[in-house]
Structures are given as structure tokens and as C-alpha cells.
Design a protein that fits this description.
The complex is a heterodimer. By secondary structure, chain A is of the alpha/beta class. Chain A folds into 2 domains: about 5-50 and about 155-220 and about 320-375, FAD/NAD(P)-binding domain, CATH 3.50.50; about 90-145 and about 225-315, D-Amino Acid Oxidase, subunit A, domain 2 (D-Amino Acid Oxidase, Chain A, domain 2, 2-Layer Sandwich). Chain A has 10 helices and 22 strands. Chain B folds into 3 domains: about 5-120 and about 265-355, FAD/NAD(P)-binding domain (3-Layer(bba) Sandwich); about 120-260, FAD/NAD(P)-binding domain; about 365-435, Arc Repressor Mutant, subunit A. In chain B, the strands form 7 sheets. Chain B has a 5-stranded parallel sheet, with helices on one face. Chain B has a 5-stranded parallel sheet with strand order 9-16-10-11-12. In chain B, strands 4-5-6-24 form a 4-stranded mixed sheet, with no helix packed on it. In chain B, helix 12 (about 385-390) packs across helix 14 (about 420-430). Chain B starts with 5 loop residues before the first strand and ends with a strand. Classes of the chains: A alpha/beta, B alpha/beta. The interface between A and B is medium-sized, with 30 and 27 residues. Strand 19 (about 305-310) of chain A pairs antiparallel with strand 23 (about 450) of chain B, so a sheet runs across the interface.
């Protein structure tokens, strides 16, 4: 039996949160071990839509989202590889059968501006002139010029490679089955018996985080869900912004973006159950059908295209659909960052940098109270 | 009694024999056919208004083609036949189809998948030029449209289809410049004991060679492709290869038909969550079935070349077997003696197929050694070099990870034409056997699905 791997910080969960935290912890000079059950970025971080969008988030999230946004803009230089970040704008639109949403958009834009996010509300001829392919049902849009999208399949692995280059140890195919605090150290045991020790443990295990937290007497209800995704054949690049519908009705929440090489990635409409214990999730054909129905309302021109592939992944939802992020109030040295509820990709690098800062310095400028693990009143 | 619904996917020899067997047992199956008419790829019907005879169209297989077509006509009124219908997904005991812009979910007690095969291709420098076709594609041009793919055609690859299509081109009066086989002739000698199990098929193969030789077609064995030459504007202008003695050769041509035997269309079985196993002789992953064709998922049966490539004649046998298995599982007893006789017949075809794999092997080392600047995935225009980077820079350990990083196999063909080669490349980079590189997981839809599609819930 080989000796336990000792480091300053151990991270369970090699998604974009964990991989970027590992990268930024190395920049603070701490030794890091990143533990991933499968391969880095293969779960929700690699299967999500790829939105790098700030608008539409709760206002309290904007400082964190702004921090993430700055990292996305410099990702290529920072990571030494291309994650296909395209700052081509992001637009939220509402349909004409819900005119009250225009007022809500304007309110949001006013508040967002105070947090440094500039949004332009577009209606009528201005909207049509700029985006002539929008459907007749689209009433108004809120455009964010400084947002965009990136390739989820590349982002988390790029952070992990950069972390390794900076001296982090990354263990893939390493499923942690035992976690306990023994003295000053957390002791983590993989299913093949390998041991990892560190005085600080960061849990970034997404839909699987509840299982780890339970071993420290902390109970989080995390619902695993599966988004509905599809992609079209490539066509000439013509649609700049990433685009989504603002609505209270889940079945209407469709969104799409065109990648530079031409394919149009489509997401949303409904979410299906997923099965984290089996590492499986399935796209329901019914959901593909409702996705088609509502994407045609958003951009009828897409009806001329065919999808060539569907996919999904396993996302962890909290009961209030808001993330958990911060130190545990029960176990010293234990930190959480999970439950991003289908909206974590853009935040990812910001979460990694913030958690690294918090762990390394004991403080961060990002107001963390709304993310508190204690809010569920256990 | 609750009505048992049986769906058969595919109206080639396997699907038609399966449907016939079901009809005989008093079942009215739904027969889903992507084609415009029954017959499948091998016994494809010619378009309306074409008047070529069965002998002209199907050669030595004319009688079999006619028998399969006649059977279809005979049961036509007793089945729910749906032509030009795509089976694109399977979920929760229902098959999802699309036809004329409408999607429908059809529940089934048994789903018999007879989805056929497509060409197994190998990336060769220049294979993405205009004028390069698969053997199957070049055969369809001839069968359906009575067209040759070029005015001077080179056939390259290995396997029975290579000689069959070349001979069909010769008979149709096309100019066949050469047949270039990557397999050395001696392999056929070694395979002969296996193939002797079906002497008439072996003789049919010999007959094809005679047709080609009589027509003066140059046949070279043991060749190694170097490149298909030409330009982006004008397409193929020639081919370069090294012959069996290692000398480089060049030949002018304006079209190349290529293929290395076939690979089964296993997408529906994969989506239906059937188990797969690696088949060492053909270096392919195949769905696991019992002798009768039961897959590992409940209610799923596989027959014909879509389960394992055993040829059109055997497809009629496995189509019947799969239908009998489905009937038996629904409590409708069959004739045990008939089953035994079919199983014995299938065993002979399997032995013959073993011989074919020896005689005309998939040249996996050619796939593994494709030059870096050659396009491997044509849909996504990904080169071998980019694929190799996913292993040596990205750390990919298997083919799905390599796909995720590079888009190899992500395009509209979903890896049908690059999956075998990309697994060989990944495995070679990692110095592992090809099975360690795994297989590309299927994602719905089985073929592209229009966003205009609406759901029919009738």
C-alpha cells in the first residue's frame, strides 16, 4: 500500500469549479490534490449548454459573475489553450403573450447597472432591425454585449491541465468512498484503498456533493436533473448572440447559440430525472419535441435545419435553485461549492478563484451570505 | 388479452422474413422502412419507369431478390407498412419515428431491429475529395439511377463487395480502371477451408473475378494506398499506391469507390441500452445477442447485417429466427425443428464470415498510421493530427473522450465512417489494443431530424 497523498488542500469533484479552484489555489502557493471519480469535466461541466451569461442571474450573484467574466475574457492567456470563448453578446427575450415581462426586464436592467452589468432593452423595429430572424411572437429583448459563450467540453479540462502545469496533482478515475476528519486532517479513501490527506477539504462534487457532506453530518437535499440539449448540422456563422427566453413556464425556457464553426447548440424546454448513482442520464424524446416547438417560436428560421445529436448530463439542483458556497459552520476546514442548479458554467472560474482566495487568505470581497450552506436550517 | 404489438425496423431481407414469420403466426406487425420501397439496400427496387430485369439488377442473386420482393407483396395487406419513415429514438418501451415532418411514439412488446450495414471506411489522404464514394454508394448509383460514379473508376478496399460492385460496373458497361485490394492474395488461400462451407457463395466470388479478368480489369492485391490525388475545385484526378512488391504506382481516374467490408448499423440497439461486446476477428463492437437474436434489453431482437455482418442470404435466416424468438417470448410456440434447421444454417454463414475476415482483413495498421494532415472525420473536418493531440496533449484515454475534445465522430454521420479508424488511432497512440479505446456511444437521433418536426399524438 502506497503512502497517503498529503497536500494543503484536497478537492473532491473535478468539474469546472474544482479544476479552477485547483488552478487558483496553486497561484496562492498552496499544494493541491484534485480528486475526480471519472474524467475531469465529464459531468455537468462538460454537458451543459455553454452559456457565459450574467444577465438573468439574481442580482446578488452579479459580483461573482463579474469576477468570472473577467477570467473568461483572459482564459486563453491564463490557460494556454483555447476554450472557444466567444464574447458575442447574450440576449434574453420575452414573448408577446407575457407583456409584463418587459417591465421586469427594465427593472432588472436598472438594478444590474448598479452592479456593473450594462443591458440594452430592445423592442419593436430596433429589435427587428438588429435581429431580423427573431419570431413574430418575440416582444422585447435585453441585450448584454459583454457576455457570450464557450465550449463546455474544453473548459474544465483546460483548467485542470493548467493546474497540473502549475503543480497541482489531479487524480482521475478516483472515486472517494470514505471521508472523515481525523485530528487536523481530512482523510479521504478511494474505492481502491488509496488515501489522501489534507487539512482543508473543498467539496465541488455537484449532484454527488450530498453524499460527501453526509459523511460530515451535513445534509443537503440535492435533486439530480438532466437538461435537454441538441445541436444542428453546421451552417454559415450568422447569429452572434447567445439567446434565451425569459418566462416562468419551464417548457418555454429554450435557448440557443451558434458556434463559430457553424453548428447551432439548442437547450432547454424541460429537464428529465437523472441517475447519479449509475452515472447515467437520458434525453427524453418528448422533451426534444417540446424543445423544437418553442425554439421555432423564438427563431422560426431554425425550422430549416436538422439536429444531428442530442445529449444531457447530471446537474445538481438545490430546493431554491441557488448554489451553496462557503465554509461549513460545523466542520473547521471543510468548504462547499456545489448545487449550481443548472446555472454554474459561467460562474465556474469565479467560484474557483473565490474559493481559493477564501481558503488561502480567510476572506473574500465577494459577499457570500446569500450562498450560505446554513440557509436550509438544518 | 392485451394486443401485442411487434415492430420491425428495416424492410430488407431480414425485416421482410421477420414480418412474414409474424404474419404467419397471426400478428400484424408494423414495418418501418427508411426506404421509398421495400427491398433494403441489397435488393433495392429500381425507380418507377425503369425497366431493367432482375437478372440485370441483381445478377446471381436475382432469384433471391425476386423471392423477397414477392413475399413482401404477398404480406403487404397484412402488415402496417410505413415507407420513408425514420426510426430515430427508443425510449421507455416506445419506438420514435418521423415521417413527413411528423414524429410518433409507437409502443411495442417486441422490437425487431433489422437496420442493415454501411461501408467500413478507412481514411486515405484525399478521401474527402469530390469523386470519392463508398462501395455501397457507388452501387446505389448504379442500381437506383443506372449511373456510374465516374468515367474512369478505381475500386479500392477489401472484401467481397469490392469485387461485386466492380463486376456490376463492368457488366453495366462502365469503365473500371482497376481493383486495388489491400489484402494479399495468400490470405484467401488460408481462408478457403472456412469459405468451403458454402461452396456456391465461394464460386460466386470466383465468378466475379472471372468477369473482371475477362473484361481486362487490372486487379492488384496486397496494395497500400498512398493518396487520392486531385484538387478541391475539380475533384479526383488519380490515385497513388504501392503495389504488393513495394513499388509505388500511379493511375489516372476521376472517381474512386472504396470500402473495407461492412459495419452494422447498431444505433437503435445502443439507444435501447443493449450490451455490446468486442468482436476480435472484425475488430468491431457488436451488440450482444443469443443465437436467436435476443439482445440484452427486454423486448429487443436484432437480425440481419445490423446485428452482425453475415450477408443478405443469412439475413433471411436471422430475420426468421428473431421473429420466432419474439413470438416464443410472447407465448406463441414455433416449430422447434424449423428453428434448429435455421440455427444450423446460420452457423454455416458464421463460419463463412470467419473466412471472409481472414481473406479480407480490415487493415487496422493503415488506419492507425494515417498521416497527421489527413482528415479522419469528414463531417467535422478533423485531421489525424488533431485527434492524436487529444491523446498526447489532452490526455484522452478512449475514443469518446477524444471525440469530446476534437469533435471526431460528432458530425452528421455520428462516427459511422470515422469511428473504426479513430479508435485504431487512439489505441495506437496509447499502445493499447483497440478494444481499450472503447466505442463511440450513440446519441439520438439515429439520423438528422428536422427541427420542423411536430409530434403527432394521435
Amino acid at each position: 500500500m502506497s503512502a497517503p497523498v498529503q497536500s494543503d488542500v484536497a478537492i473532491i469533484g473535478g468539474g469546472i469549479m474544482g479544476a479552477s479552484a485547483a488552478f487558483f489555489l496553486r497561484r496562492h502557493g498552496l499544494s493541491v490534490t484534485l480528486l475526480e471519480t471519472d474524467k475531469v469535466g465529464r459531468q455537468a461541466s462538460g454537458t451543459n449548454f455553454g452559456n457565459v451569461r450574467r444577465q438573468g442571474r439574481p442580482i446578488f450573484q452579479l459580483p461573482l459573475a463579474n469576477r468570472a467574466s473577467r477570467i473568461w475574457r483572459t482564459a486563453r492567456e491564463l490557460l494556454g489553450s483555447d476554450v472557444e470563448y466567444l464574447q458575442s453578446g447574450h440576449m434574453r427575450v420575452c414573448f408577446s403573450d407575457r407583456p409584463e415581462n418587459v417591465g421586469a426586464m427594465e427593472d432588472y436592467a436598472t438594478k444590474a447597472r448598479e452592479e456593473g452589468l450594462d443591458l440594452e432593452i430592445l423592442t419593436g423595429n430596433t429589435l427587428r432591425a438588429r435581429f431580423p430572424w427573431l419570431g413574430p411572437e418575440v416582444l422585447a429583448g435585453s441585450h448584454s454585449a459583454m457576455d457570450g459563450h464557450a465550449n463546455p467540453r474544453l473548459a474544465a479540462p483546460a483548467f485542470a491541465r493548467a493546474a497540473i502545469a502549475a503543480g497541482a496533482q489531479v487524480f482521475e478515475d478516483t472515486r472517494i468512498t470514505g471521508a472523515a476528519k481525523i485530528g487536523d486532517d481530512f482523510e479521504l479513501e478511494a474505492d481502491d484503498g488509496r488515501l489522501f490527506r489534507a487539512p482543508v477539504l473543498l467539496v465541488t462534487a455537484g449532484a454527488w456533493a450530498g453524499k460527501i457532506a453526509t459523511q460530515f453530518g451535513e445534509d443537503f437535499a440535492i435533486t439530480p436533473r438532466a437538461p435537454t440539449m441538441s445541436v444542428t448540422e453546421p451552417v454559415p456563422y450568422a447569429i452572434e448572440p447567445s439567446l434565451g427566453v425569459m418566462t416562468a413556464l419551464e417548457v418555454e425556457t429554450v435557448y440557443f447559440r451558434q458556434v463559430e464553426r457553424g453548428n447551432i447548440v439548442i437547450g432547454g424546454s424541460t429537464r428529465a430525472p437523472s441517475y447519479p448513482d449509475e452515472y447515467r442520464s437520458y434525453v427524453l424524446p418528448e422533451s426534444t419535441m417540446t424543445q423544437f416547438e418553442h425554439i421555432r417560436r423564438l427563431a422560426p428560421v431554425l425550422a430549416n435545419l436538422s439536429i444531428i445529436r442530442v445529449w444531457t448530463g447530471i446537474e445538481g439542483y438545490m430546493d431554491d435553485s441557488l448554489p451553496v458556497m462557503g465554509p461549513s459552520s460545523n466542520v473547521p476546514g471543510l468548504y462547499h461549492a456545489f448545487g449550481f442548479s443548472g446555472a454554474g458554467f459561467q460562474l465556474g472560474p469565479g467560484v474557483g478563484e473565490t474559493m481559493a482566495e477564501l481558503i488561502a487568505t480567510g476572506a473574500t470581497d465577494i459577499p457570500l451570505a446569500p450562498y450560505s450552506p446554513d440557509r436550509f436550517g438544518k | 388479452m392485451v394486443e401485442k404489438r411487434v415492430i420491425v425496423v428495416g424492410a430488407g431481407p431480414a425485416g421482410i422474413r421477420a414480418a412474414e414469420t409474424l404474419v404467419a403466426a397471426g400478428i400484424r406487425p408494423v414495418l418501418i422502412d427508411e426506404g421509398r420501397r421495400d427491398g433494403g439496400q441489397i435488393y433495392r427496387r429500381q425507380p418507377d419507369g425503369f425497366t431493367r430485369s432482375y437478372e440485370t439488377l441483381y445478377g446471381t442473386e436475382a432469384a433471391r431478390a425476386r423471392a423477397v420482393h414477392d413475399t413482401f407483396e404477398a404480406i403487404r395487406d397484412r402488415i402496417d407498412y410505413r415507407a420513408e419513415t425514420l426510426a430515430w429514438n427508443v425510449s421507455d418501451g416506445r419506438l420514435w419515428t418521423a415521417r413527413d415532418g411528423e414524429a410518433e411514439a409507437i409502443p411495442y412488446s417486441a422490437l425487431i431491429v433489422c437496420s442493415g450495414a454501411t461501408d467500413r471506411l478507412l481514411p486515405v489522404p484525399g478521401w474527402n475529395r469530390a469523386g470519392v464514394f463508398s462501395l455501397g454508394g457507388s452501387q446505389i448509383a448504379l442500381k437506383a439511377q443506372a449511373c456510374s460514379i465516374g468515367s474512369k473508376v478505381v475500386f479500392m478496399g477489401s472484401g467481397p463487395l469490392l469485387y461485386l460492385v466492380a463486376a456490376q460496373y463492368v457488366k453495366a458497361g462502365a469503365n473500371v480502371a482497376a481493383v486495388l485490394d489491400t489484402s494479399p492474395f495468400m490470405k484467401r488461400v488460408r481462408a478457403a477451408p472456412f469459405m468451403a462451407v458454402l461452396p456456391d457463395l465461394l464460386f460466386a466470388g470466383v465468378g466475379l473475378m472471372r468477369t473482371l479478368k475477362t473484361a481486362g480489369v487490372r486487379i492488384a492485391t496486397g496494395i497500400t494506398p498512398v493518396s487520392i490525388e486531385g484538387s478541391d475545385d475539380t475533384g479526383v484526378s488519380g490515385i497513388r499506391y504501392t503495389d504488393g512488391s513495394g513499388r509505388e504506382q500511379h493511375m489516372d481516374c476521376d472517381a474512386v469507390a472504396m470500402g473495407w467490408h461492412l459495419r452494422p448499423e447498431t444505433q437503435l440497439a445502443d439507444i435501447a441500452r443493449c450490451d455490446f461486446a468486442f468482436d476480435a476477428p472484425t475488430r468491431q463492437w457488436l451488440p450482444v445477442t443469443d443465437d436467436d437474436g435476443r439482445a440484452t434489453s427486454d423486448g429487443i431482437y436484432l437480425a440481419g447485417d445490423g446485428a452482425r455482418v453475415l450477408g443478405a442470404r443469412c439475413a433471411e435466416v436471422t430475420g426468421r429466427l428473431a421473429a420466432m424468438a419474439a413470438l416464443s417470448d410472447m407465448g406463441i410456440a414455433g416449430d422447434p425443428a424449423a428453428r434448429q434447421s435455421l440455427l444450423a444454417e446460420k452457423a454455416r454463414y458464421r463460419r463463412f464470415a470467419q473466412g471472409l475476415a481472414i481473406a479480407f482483413p480490415w487493415p487496422h495498421e493503415l488506419a492507425a498510421n494515417v498521416p497527421d494532415d489527413t482528415v479522419v472525420c469528414r463531417c467535422e473536418a478533423v485531421t489525424a493530427g488533431t485527434l492524436r493531440e487529444t491523446v498526447d496533449i489532452g490526455g484522452a484515454t478512449e475514443t469518446n473522450r477524444a471525440k469530446s475534445f476534437s469533435r471526431v465522430g460528432m458530425g452528421r454521420c455520428q462516427g459511422r465512417y470515422c469511428g473504426n479508424a479513430s479508435a485504431e488511432i487512439v489505441a495506437a497512440m496509447r499502445r493499447e489494443p483497440v478494444e481499450a479505446a472503447g466505442r463511440l456511444r450513440t446519441q439520438a437521433p439515429v439520423k438528422p431530424l428536422s427541427i420542423a418536426t411536430v409530434r403527432n399524438e394521435a
